[in-house]
Amino acid sequence: MNDCVFCKIIEGDIPSSKVYEDEKIYAFLDISQVTKGHTLIVPKEHVKDIYEYDEILAADVFSRIPMVARALKKAFPDMKGLNIVNNNEPLAYQSVFHSHFHLIPRYQEDEGFAMKFENNQTNYNQDDLLEIADTINKNIQ
Q: pTM value?
């Protein structure tokens, strides 16, 4: 795609700090470096978000994530955790519309990155949960 920053990075038109590349993915350091080693994994095929993946592309991309994660762990033995984040659509903080996965090494609690999950368990009873699950299940193809 001509105006896609990640496509330009993959093509070498924009410089990047490449971590890994093969025929299916390109992995490089995120320029923000939320934490040391913050890496993006990008499919070489331009897809906007997770909704555009087919099973083959998903297998190609997802099968490489553990390899890069293990490399991060080996490279930074002081790493105490790893967040893998994929944002889809603007409300979910997607800002580059070429699907990508953030691998964010964690070294300590207070380091400029946080994820917060509210516990809304009291808002749903078992019947609500069964209805939600059934609704999702009916839409699986």
A: 0.92
